[in-house]
Amino acid sequence: MNPARPDRLTHMFTDTKAYSGFAVDDVDAANAFYGDTLGLRTSRHEDFLILHIAGDRNTLVYPRPNHVPAQYTILNFPVDDVEAAVDELTARGVTFERYEDFPQDEKGIMRGNGPDIAWFTDPAGNVLSVIEDVEM
Prior knowledge:
Blueprint: H1 8-11, E1 20-24, H2 27-37, E2 41-45, E3 48-52, E4 59-63, E5 73-79, H3 82-91, E6 109-110, E7 117-121, E8 127-132
């Protein structure tokens, strides 16, 4: 830190509207999945996809050659009823992940170990979830 400007770094990001981003191997497939399957509003900017998430929480989706899917949850979608969300997404062709380390029911929902949650992947293999809406 520059001793002549001790507060500069401390306050640099105070009013910055940070956003998140992640990579995919096929932006067109991501657009179809996030827009059509999940029902998010999307837009394109050159080779990038922008997910317009509620609360002005835009997320940048960018193409990456030799993409390797994230092995952790990149987006959590809070819902009032995880089971209803799982049923609706299953009807739309989404398959829910099963993890040996987590007690999940026949639908893939983990219950009673924190908020109810179920994981699925986007076409690029990135992990997403529907999770019981808890106050953040």
